[in-house]
Amino acid sequence: MFPTPKIHKTYFYKGLPVEGIPCVFRDCTKTCSSSGGLKRHLRAKHGDVFDYLLELPSDDEADVSEDEEIGPLGEDFFLPLPDEDPGPENNGVGDPFVFVQQPNEDLGGYGAQSPPLTPEPTDIFDDDEPWMTEGWDSDDSNTDDDPHPLETLPPLIMSHEVINGQRFRSNGEKVAEDDASPPPSLPDLTSGGFAPFTDRLAFETARLVYEKAKLPAKKIDALLNLWKASLLQHDGSPPFEDHAQLYATIDAITHAGDVNWECLTMRYTGDPPKTVGDHSWMDVEHEVWFRDPLKVVHNMLANPDFNGEIDWAPFREVIEEDGERTYRFKDLMSGVWAWEQADLLAQNPANQDASFVPIILGSDKTTVSVATGQTDYYPLYLSIGNVTNTVRRARRGAVAVIGFLALAKADKSYAKDNNFRKHRRRLFHSSLVEILSTLKPAMTTPEMIQCGDGYFRKVLYGLGPYIADYPEQVLLASVVQGWCAKDDLDNLEEPRPADRSEDHTTTLIEEYSVKKLWDGWGVVADVTPFTEEFPHAEIYRLIAPDLLHQMIKGVFKDHLVTWVVEYIKLVHPEREANRILDEIDRRPRLQTWTGDDSKALMKVFLAAIVGYVPESMIQALHAFLEFCYLARRNVHTNRTLRKMKAALEEYHGHREIFEQYGKREELGFNLPRQHSMLHYIDLIVSFGAPNGLCSSITESKHIVAVKEPWRRSSRYKALGQMLLINQRLDKLAAARVYFETRDMLRGSCLLEEFLRLELDIPSGLQAEPDDDDDDDEALSAMARLQAALHPPVLHPDGTFEGRLRQPFTRMASRAEAQYPRTLGGLGEHVGVELLDLVKEFLAEHFVSEGYLNRDAEELTTVTRVQVHHSMAATFFAPSDPCGGKGMRRELIRATPTWWGGTAPRYDCVLVATGAKESICGYEVARLKLLFSFSHRGVRYPCALVRWYAKRDEQPDPITGMWILHPAYSQPPPSASPVDPDSLPPVISVIHIQQIYRAAHLLPGFVDDSPVPSDATFQNALDLFSEFYLNKFADIRMYETLG
Questions:
Q1: Order of strands across the sheet with 156-159?
Q2: For residue range 510-540, what is the model confidence (pLDDT) as tens digits?
Q3: Residues annotated as region Disordered (predicted)?
């Protein structure tokens, strides 16, 4: 059905026979004679757009004969259209099928080992569900007679036929799909150069002192005065005279991002309450500060930084998995909700060829000061549903603060007064209606705007998912506290939810009294949700899943951890219970995890309670962690949704043990956050992966938009200062994007000055390229220069703003000086026969077997033997904190002096071996040494490792984690018995490219034995004999280990 292309063969592409290999970008007509030529063309002509694709092998990397078919990598690149009717949706009116390259995220992006398939539970989905079967013929197309079976197909993207993201030129002319002409250029918003800054140095200085260092005015003046003093003898001057000139220059930025703040005044206008008392809160005028959301959205859509990471139309992504066709849910536009919204908009013929832009909102109160009085703010955030989840979660400007809502306050005696609470709810909903009013006209009539790729589009807006924690959810839905905002069950322990709907609620309001609605259905009947003022918006459907507050802080910390503590206190005397709780507290402290936040505790709590609680409690916690970690994935398919359903059923079965102890026996599980787990599968189908709509996104934005600006303010009437700080930060961010888009910020200012003056570039200004494998010295030097001109950005939390690519490792550039410079001497220093181990390493990987007979003296004189204390592993981890391309970097250490020289640290790692006895293709080892050496002109960055072995052939059935122990060399079968403690450990030398990432081992607590008094996280790996391989260390580790 889908012919596999061959090199130098004629095959059909876009319905036409072509010679050679066509460019994979549908707007380009270029064909190449080899894969190497295609690779050069893609890099030269398509630039950054090509960065997210897999790298093609060059001609000398794969000698493919003329008749040999391209392997799986080639199949991903060459995507011919089907030569058979794909199904009933292809009506002959255009082609709804669009093929795009997608990295295989289930396998880690590129080439990572896949866990072995396990039998799946019964399909939870109805075959009649339209999102499962619509658009496909019922014929049996995947048969043995098909020469190109379905499992070889790349992902299939079906875009909406009407709301299709059509591109236009400025005169309204459609741009054909195969039109390869360059897009119109974006408007030039500067008078030239770095205006309003004098030059790049002035712009970088402003970013450094205002955005990065956050210096106050006095310190800015002090810095500029020191700068001025250093330049007086050279008759020079710094870029700014003082802080006032710097602020004025930032305020003069006219790039996109300049949306002024406006003030809306609101007060109570209803009838006075009939109750007796002080109702002075009715006379208070509330100020609501906001920015025009329409202009903010225009800026986001025009941001060229999002090119290639924005979807202009709803789509369905179909893949082959476990022998069946299934949709893949990832970003918001891949969900069923966006498609249904497009169907509603498509009913108007004027909306043909429009683009749909969902407006994602989020709000949450936050406290900035308690010690000096309760100082709260109520920020309102906005994002667009078109950008990918990784972009929304990264530091890329896809989430903006658009308002500070009013906080209605009253004396404590009236805080729970029904009239005041009604007033507070109405103030919230009325404020949202007024703030969002500028978006409403374009929710039914499309507007033509220029987008970040230079083309124009007809844009229709619609209210999308709302990010909120539980108190905010019931406020949004006008639901009584304790009820679910999405269904009207009076018993939240019911297994199947009964969804709320706007029509049903309206009917109830017409039939019953306010009190009856409050008690019987949990409806606050005298407050109308703001969504009723906008088309195609129903708040009950727009409540987004909240991983942070529902799962991590809610079910895990507030429920499961609390219930475990209640159990221990119930079944043990007070003193013994406190001793056990102290031991449980000590166990996680043996790990390098720091902090007491819920996410960190979730990673280690399962192993910490082993031996102190019944196995059924551990299994309940294990089943919940399985459900939670599956829900936090960046991509979902039938397989993950079935696993989530099975984990939820297992959790519900095991959690019954908590009813036998503590308060659950009386209260049961009638809890909103426990109940919310029932909605997750439906919400994933509707909105895609929940990690793109989590309240952690808005909470992290609190720091930048609220807390840090408040700390920078004078504290007196701080809100006005905070608004100005936010506006200046937005201006600097917009200017950065503008200059970067025009390639004006290459490398550092100092490097640019060296190049301008044609001076020799110091080695410290050069950088190691990620993929510099060329031995040519001139080319290597150019690659280092290019890496310095376009450096990736690494944030403290490991998020890596670099291009999407295969996992790679990099040794630290610094070499430690206190070590011997020969392999023999270094081996004596660390107490191993390093020379022999390196010989085995060279023999196994790089040299013929005869090398073992060579004179050992050749290696003792090897040059440039260097020891390093750390290395970096960079890999694709879109489900964890990562850059906009989904990449993450972590440091791996092998140092005798960590934490200020107080303790050693030798990390454990996952090593890709592919061995049959391995764990999902990986084995676990602990670093003993990181070193590099040169031999015959080749540099080898290596690691000396000690191996671990599996205790059993399957993971532990209670915790779900593999149990490991240090591996020892076994004597031959014919040898006499030896003491197991005298066996030597298994040690070897490996190339660091075999290391995938760090591994986290937890001491294997198999009973209630106390932790040794001398145990610390520095020596835990030496004190214990068995360990859990912690698959809950993060989401990527969970995905890797299965």
A1: 97-98, 156-159, 315-321, 324-327
A2: 999 999 999 999 999 989 999 999 999 999 9
A3: 99-148, 171-191
